[in-house]
């Protein structure tokens, strides 16, 4: 198993007036009431998508997670279309641990100096 579960995504590609760069997101979902056909359809879509790096179901509640690389909000919407009607979604952009630690150390240093 790799020591870094979040390897670097492809380098940014220049396109027109702006950069297009895939970003990794962790999406957690929990079903409001009972499992709907929509949940099954979305999870099957996620399981077969080349944008999805990992996915699974929670053992303690009606829900699960997906880790996906997407380059636009519309792609994220396409992947989870319909699920927002029957489940609560939490979407978190992910950063590699080394980059996050560098940021946290910088914040700590500026607090100590400030």
Category by helix and strand content: alpha+beta
Query: Could you tell me the mean pLDDT?
Result: 84
CATH superfamily: Dimeric alpha+beta barrel
How are the strands of the largest sheet arranged?
4-5-3-6
CATH class: Alpha Beta
What is the domain total for the residues?
A: 1
Report the sheet with the most strands, covering strand number, pairing sense and barrel closure.
4 strands, antiparallel
The helix tally amounts to 3
**Into which percent range does the helicity of residues fall?**
25-40%
**Low-confidence blocks of residues:** 9-15
CATH topology: Alpha-Beta Plaits
β-strand number: 6
> What is the C-alpha radius of gyration, as a whole number of Å?
17 Å
Span between N and C termini?
41 Å
How much β-strand is present in the residues? 25-35%
- Please name the CATH architecture: 2-Layer Sandwich
List keywords for this structure.
alpha+beta; elongated; 114 residues; four-stranded antiparallel sheet
Walkthrough of the structure:
The structure is a single chain. The chain is α+β, with helices and mostly antiparallel strands. The protein has one domain: Dimeric alpha+beta barrel (Alpha-Beta Plaits, 2-Layer Sandwich), CATH 3.30.70.1060. Helix content is 32%, strand content 32%. A hairpin with a 2-residue loop joins strand 1 and strand 2. The protein is elongated. Mean pLDDT is 84; it is low at 9-15.
């Amino acid at each position: 198993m790799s020591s870094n579960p979040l390897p670097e995504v492809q380098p940014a590609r220049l396109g027109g007036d702006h950069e297009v760069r895939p970003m990794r997101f962790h999406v957690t979902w929990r079903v409001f009431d009972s499992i709907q056909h929509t949940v099954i359809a979305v999870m099957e879509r996620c399981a077969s998508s080349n944008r999805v790096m990992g996915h699974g179901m929670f053992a303690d509640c009606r829900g699960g997670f997906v880790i996906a690389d997407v380059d636009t909000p519309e792609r994220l919407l396409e992947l989870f279309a319909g699920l927002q009607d029957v489940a609560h979604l939490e979407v978190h952009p992910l950063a590699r641990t080394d980059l996050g630690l560098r940021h946290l150390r910088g914040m700590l240093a500026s607090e100590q100096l400030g």
